[in-house]
């Protein structure tokens, strides 16, 4: 069946090959590049593959080679409100957000998809490395490039209108295909940094917007070990940048209290948690888990996967890990996996709280 497909083209190799595959499959494809910055010079420059000043031109050239119409959509206002401002607000509240995840949720598969459907398109195509099988998301065959975690926040309806042509191949194969197709982005580097922080200095970016207010760094007993210049520049699990001096044993950030501007540190063992509560559960791959269910959970992008039991209670997702995890930060997503091979996205929630449970405490 021929579909009207809107191909989101970032200017990188993945989205270019995804658009080419969709067109080659016989779909009626239109390329669109999202202009996300009100001031493009304030974003990172250089051929890094996402949200740079050069990317619109790279995307347009790729669309010309593929032979599809191409447009640029101005999404700067939505991006600033739903991604950049959210990023700053989350850090101000002592949480650690994932802006790429929020961009997928709020921009690519909400604002863009809504506009696409209104214009008569059937689906939005992207270059994410993830498979869509029987209407559910599964991990990419290239586990090193798998992006199912950052898509775990999508709703069932959003997944239904999404197309992911690259989930059945590796990144090496994508680059080779781009070369064969004559796409100039074949060797373009991947992007790894936050696109709206031009110099990669997250602490400096946050200080510019939130100010730098000195506060105490305390241990678990409440003893002051040192000071910091802004609690919002820290994240749970962080070890570097504490500047406590050689006399203090190695310490990690255990918690951040924005109200009293206090950072609490302790030994690595104190980071261990085995119970997680997550807000705003979304179920794209199964019905809500109303009974404790054995599955697997990923707690940060490219992080370790843990066996667990999960259940939704009173609108919250409660996850009991089979073994403790460290460095679990509020604001990150907890994405559940299950299915025959354990690689199907079941649902997700935003981590709100963590704890060590008593051994005799069931989920």
From TrEMBL:
Annotated GO MF terms: ATP binding; tRNA binding; tRNA-uridine 2-sulfurtransferase activity
Compartments (UniProt record): Cytoplasm
UniProt keywords, alphabetically: ATP-binding, Cytoplasm, Disulfide bond, Nucleotide-binding, RNA-binding, Transferase, tRNA processing, tRNA-binding
Annotated region described as Interaction with tRNA, given as residue ranges: 145-147
Gene Ontology biological process terms, A to Z: tRNA wobble position uridine thiolation
Domain of life: Bacteria
InterPro entries for the chain: MnmA-like, MnmA-like_C, MnmA-like_central, MnmA-like_central_sf, Rossmann-like_a/b/a_fold
Top-tier EC class: transferase
Function: Catalyzes the 2-thiolation of uridine at the wobble position (U34) of tRNA, leading to the formation of s(2)U34.
Family note: Belongs to the MnmA/TRMU family.
Full protein name: tRNA-specific 2-thiouridylase MnmA
